[in-house]
Structures are given as C-alpha cells and as structure tokens.
Amino acid sequence: MKGQEKERCLHLMIDILKILKSTTQHEEVFYRTIDLITRVLPCQSVAIILIDPANEYLKIDCTYGISHTFQKQFRRKISTGAIGELIWNGKSIVIRDSQADPVLAQEVQLEQPFGSCVCMPIGADHRSLGYLSVTSDLTHAFDADDQTFLQACADVMGIAYQKCWLAEENLRIDRIDHETGLEKYSAFQERLQAALDRGVQFKETFAVALCDVDNFKSISQTYGYAASRQLLLDLGNLLKHHVRSMDATGRFGFDEFVVLRENTDPEEAIQFADRLRGAVAEALFTSYGIRSTVSVGLAVFPQNGATMDDLMVTAKKALFEAQKLGRDKVVALPGVWYQRQDRPVSESL
Q: How is residue 247 annotated by DSSP?
C-alpha cells in the first residue's frame, strides 16, 4: 500500500474499531472490514470462511466477488492439508503465482481461478474460528505489508465473532456445558491459569491433553442427531471417570475435549493420555453400542511452554500430527517446540 492508501486504511480501520466497541453483533464488522480490504487492495474476491459449530464443516459467512449460489452451496471438510494447517495451527497460506503451485491453488480455490491468493487464520482465545481468503486476478498482488494488514483484518474479525459468542454465553452464565457435562472452555481456562500460577510459584509440572473424536461426523450421519449428542455426553462422563479430583476437564470445540492433568511429568502424562485413548477405544457408547476413537495432542508445562498460549498452540499442533498419523494416536512434541523453527514430532503412541 502507498502512503495515501495507508492513511485511508487507518481512518477506515478506526471506524471499524468504533463499531466493534459499540456492538456485540459481528455482521457489521465483517461487512465493513471486507469493504476496507476491497478499497485498498486489488481484490478479485474476499471471503470469510468459518467453522460451522453444528457440524465442523467450513462455511462461507460473508463475501465480495463470489456468487450467492456458490456461497450457499459451499460446504467443505477441514482437511489435513494446507487448509488443515491453517485451521489447526494458524499457518497462513500465500500463493504469489497460482501457475507456479497449481496443487495448492486448487486446494484453496473457491468459485474462480486466481492469479494470487492470501489466506489468513481467524481465531480468538486459542480457538480456530476459520480463515480469511483474499484473491486477485493478478500475480504477485500482495506484498509483505499487505499480508500484515490482512492478518490485522482477520484478527479484528475474530474478536468481533468471539465478542458475539461471549455475549450469548453470558446469557447462559453457566460454567457447565450441558451437552457433555464438562466445564465450558472459559471456565476451564480459569483452572488452567491457576495451574500456571502454581507451576511458576511452586515449580509444579502439569499437562494439557487435547482430544478430538475421530469419527464423529460419520456417527452423526449414521445414527442421527440424538445419538451423536448422547455420544458427547457419554464421552464426557468417561473423561470425568478417568481423571482425579484435582484435574479438570472441559469442552474445547464441538467434538473436542481438553483435560488438565495436574502434578505430572512428561512420561506419566503420555501414559495417562494413552490410557484415556484406550478407554475410549474399548467403550461402547449410547444404546446403539457405538464404538469411537480419539486423537490426542499433549503439551507439558514448562517443557512445552510458559504461557497458556504456548501450551494450547503446542497441544493443537500435536493433535494435528496425531490425526495425520492415522488417528487413534497420542502425540507429544519436544520441549520448547513453540520456540523452534523446524518443530519435528517427538513421539507418538
């Protein structure tokens, strides 16, 4: 962006932030932010693509340059490819010339082919909410400053969406998620922060295990809505049965659970996570006797991070690796993974 464009961008962003401060509805912020992007960048299309909490498929929420028919019909799985890395680990996608990387271009393409594309993660409070897709019919249309600008736009969208969600949550005020019987993630965060404070003060170690139900979508399609919700409740009860009174369990996503294992070292944490994985694999859920499995990503304090952000990022990355290995696996990553550039997988079970 040139000097005049940056000045105009700043004024428009200030207007958007005023709206963000004054409302709990995210739609106006979405539309204003897309308008800002199209005013300062050579856009062919802009799309806000969110995770549908009802089924964890991706859906298009708000667009520019994309037909209403395509937007309405769009429904994609969260893959383990580049889009999966984007959703799970916040790894942005930059395609400067689609002809130079046709496979990646095909994966991220929406309605029309493009010359260049940028996809930026949208998230808040450690939750992956979706991503922002911006394309141009020109090659090399977006430089490093443009990418920084687009990430800032995506961050504003994430805050707006989270603010709306929190307003709805405050209406329910309850700390318990009644679909699973576990703590809501906001309540779990308080427990995790308390563990961090104790860990720093008393040199205590603990672990965070992030669990994802491997076959939830197929269960829902096969047995129906009621059975899939009963499965979530049964899984919640199983988790509570396998943790100690000092530990904590929470609902992280639609079919994702998070467990805080207090006073544990890395070796015991891996053993605990694998016992949990095995218990799920052996159990029969609902009156139909449904079998299921979970993938588990593990992060240990202080080896995998000194903050809540570090630990959750590590656990999410480890979970992603467990899914790539074929699911029904436990993966733990090396110490200080979040500080390293290569970030290899340490071990899996």
A: -
Give the chain's residues under pLDDT 50. Answer: 337-349
Distances from the Cα of 24 to the Cαs of 50, 62, 63, 185, 293, in angstroms? Answer: 18, 17, 20, 20, 37
Per DSSP, helices labelled H in 60-213 are 68-73, 82-89, 102-108, 144-172, 185-202
- Asked whether the whole model's pTM tops 0.90, one would answer no
- Give the model's pLDDT for residue 167: 76
Which has the closest alpha carbon to 209: 139, 158, 279? 279
Q: Is 72 exposed, middle or buried (0-12, 13-18, 19+ CB in 10 A)?
A: exposed
- Token pair for 29: 């912020």
The C-alpha atoms of residue 120 and residue 153 are separated, in whole angstroms, by: 9
pLDDT at 279: 97
Q: CA-based angle 32:36:37, to the nearest 5?
A: 120
3-state secondary structure 257-305: EEEEECCCCHHHHHHHHHHHHHHHHHCCECCCCECCCEEEEEEEECCCC
Q: How much is the pLDDT for 119? A: 98
Tally Cβ neighbours within 10 Å of residue 342: 6
- Helices and strands in the chain: count of H runs, count of E runs: 11, 13
pLDDT digits (tens, 9 = 90+) for 189-221: 999 999 999 999 999 999 999 999 999 999 999
For strands 330-332 and 294-301, give the pairing. parallel
pLDDT digit string (tens) for 65-101?
A: 999 999 999 999 887 799 999 998 999 999 999 999 9
Give the pair of three-digit tokens for residue 338. Answer: 């979040």
Give the number of residues written for the chain. 349
pLDDT of residue 287: 95
The structural domains of the chain, ordered by start, are 3-171 (3.30.450.40), 176-348 (3.30.70.270)
What is the Cα–Cα distance from 251 to 257, expressed in whole angstroms? 5
